Amino acid sequence: MFAKRIVVPLSVLTVGSAAAIAGVLNADAAEATACSVSYAVPSQWGTGFTGDIKITNSGGTAVEGWKLGFGFPAGQKLAGGWNGVFTQTGAQVTVADTGWNRTIAPGGQATVGFNGVWSGTNTAPTTFTLNGVTCTGGVPASSTPSAAASVAPTASATPTKTVSASPSKTVSATPTKTVSASASPAVTKGAENCTDFAALVRGKFWVNNNVWGKADGTGSQCVWENGLTGDSLSWGTSWTWAGDNTKVKSYASSVLGWHWGWKVPSGTGLPVRLSAGKPVTTNWNFQVTQNSGGVMNVAYDLWLHDKANPDWPDNPTDEVMVWLYKSGGAGPVGTKQATVSIGGATWDLYRGNIGWEVYSFVRTSNTSAAGLDLTDFTDELVARKWLAETKYLSSVQAGTEIFTGSGRLDTTAYSVQVG
C-alpha cells in the first residue's frame, strides 16, 4: 500500500507494515492466474485501527466477481468497512465485491478498507484467499504510522474510480429557496500541519487532514486553520499527489459532526432526523489554485445513519455529495440518473453503491461561492424514494477530493447552521 517497501520475514511484521501475499488464483488451470494481496494499517488509536487491503490480479485473465477471505490472528474485531461487503465469523473475515468493482482486469486492482478493534497486539493476517484459492508469497513492509496519526479513523466513502456520465432523462426539481453566500473576510494564514490525519479543532468544526487513499499514489498534503470570525471558519490545504488518476488520494475537509466518532461531542446541532424538517444552511467561499494539471473536485460530503447516536464503529447507510467545482475530468461513483435544479443552479445527479448508497449532485458549471440549504438535496432524494426521511443526518463536511496534481484550496469563509 506504500510506495517504498523492504522485504522482511513474517516473524518481524509489526503494526503498520504491509503484508503482501502472491500466489495462484486458479490452481485448476495450467495457465493459472496470479494474484497478490497487500494489507496495511495506516492509522491506529486507543483500541481501534484502520486497515487497507489491495487485491492485485497479476495474471492474464480478468476476475469476474470476487470474495476475499482472511483470519485475524490476534482476536481483532471488524467494526465496519467500505468498497466491499464485510462479514466476520469468529476470527474469519470475508469481503465480497459490491457489484461496481466486481471485475479486476489483468494487472488491475481492487482496494477495500475497514475499521477494527484490537487489544494486546495488532498482528497482521498472514494468509489470504481469493475465491477460495490461497494466495501465498513474500512479505514487503512499509513505515509504521506516526504517533500523531492516533486520531479517530478517517475513512471516507469518496469514489475510487471515475465514471463517465451517460445521457439520461432530465428531471426538474421543485423550485427551492436560494441562500446567498456571504462576503469573504480578510484572513491571515495559520501554521501548516502536514501530519497524516491531523485534526485541527476550532469551535464546533475540526479540519481533517484526511489522506485515506494515499496508498494508491505518492505525495503529501498539509492543512491549516486561520480561526473563526463569528460562526465562520477560515482554513486551507495544499497537496501534491501522483499515481492512478481514477482513485482519490485525499479529502482534506472541515468536519461538523460525526466522522467515525466525534471530535466535538456537542454544539454541532447533529445528528438531526430528516423528518424534523430543520434547515441546514451553509455558506462557503473558496479559491482553488492548481500548480500543475490534475484531477480534483471541491465538494460537500454528508453522512446519514439509521440511528440517532452513531459512534465510530457505525458505518453510514447513505452518503450525499454536493460537487461545486471539478477539474481534470473528475467524476463521481455510480451512473447519472437525472439533471435537477436546486438552489438556483443545475446539477447532474448520480447514484452508486460502495457498501452503502452514494448520491452525488455535480454542479453543471463550476463555482467558488455557495449559499445553500443542504436539506434541499436530501429532500430531492426523499421525493424520489431513494432516501428515507427517518434517517439521521450525522455529519456535514466540506473539502477537496484530490486524485492527482499539485495545488491548494483556500477557504476564506465557511459556515453551517442546523435549524
Automatic annotation (TrEMBL):
GO-annotated biological processes: polysaccharide catabolic process
First and last residue of the signal peptide: 1-20
Residues covered by the CBM2 domain: 28-138
One Gene Ontology MF term: cellulase activity
PROSITE patterns according to UniProt: CBM2
Region (Disordered), start-end ranges: 142-173
UniProt keyword list: Carbohydrate metabolism, Glycosidase, Hydrolase, Polysaccharide degradation, Signal
SMART domains in the cross-refs: CBD_II
PANTHER family in the cross-refs: BLR1656 PROTEIN, XYLOGLUCAN-SPECIFIC ENDO-BETA-1,4-GLUCANASE A
Entry's family note: Belongs to the glycosyl hydrolase 12 (cellulase H) family.
Protein's recorded name: Cellulose binding domain-containing protein
Species of the source: Actinoplanes derwentensis
Lineage of the organism: Bacteria, Bacillati, Actinomycetota, Actinomycetes, Micromonosporales
